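Our platform keeps sequence and structure together, in a single record for each protein. Because each token names a local backbone shape, the row as a whole describes the fold. One such record is reproduced below, unchanged from the form in which we store it:
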Amino acid sequence: RTMHPLQELSVGAPDIVLAHVIVAICSCIFNWSLNEAAHQRVLSVARERRANFKEATSSKLLTAFCDTLVDLDADLRIDGSTDRIAKFLRTENQHSLQGSYFATFLAEDDRLR
């Protein structure tokens, strides 16, 4: 006698149901982790853009109110573009300012602070 395909499955039905449940749970966990990773990436990009916007806005405001801006590294040496500070200091060779210790351009009294 031949069995209907569904009848053949019914022999191991609890095992098959369990396998389907496990696959469904794994699929849900995988989808959640993908969504969470995408969500974290979107938040990271948004934070980065907000930080860049704040920095650009601050720079524009400082440029409007200050004679010049100077980028300094961790050792307080001039870093970045030096053309504006060179013009401010009336220095002919702006490349000589790159890497210079900033305090050397300050008055003696201001260096101590």
Remarks:
- The first helix runs from residue 5 to 10.
- The CA atoms of residues 60 and 100 lie 25 Å apart.
- DSSP finds four helices and two strands in the chain.
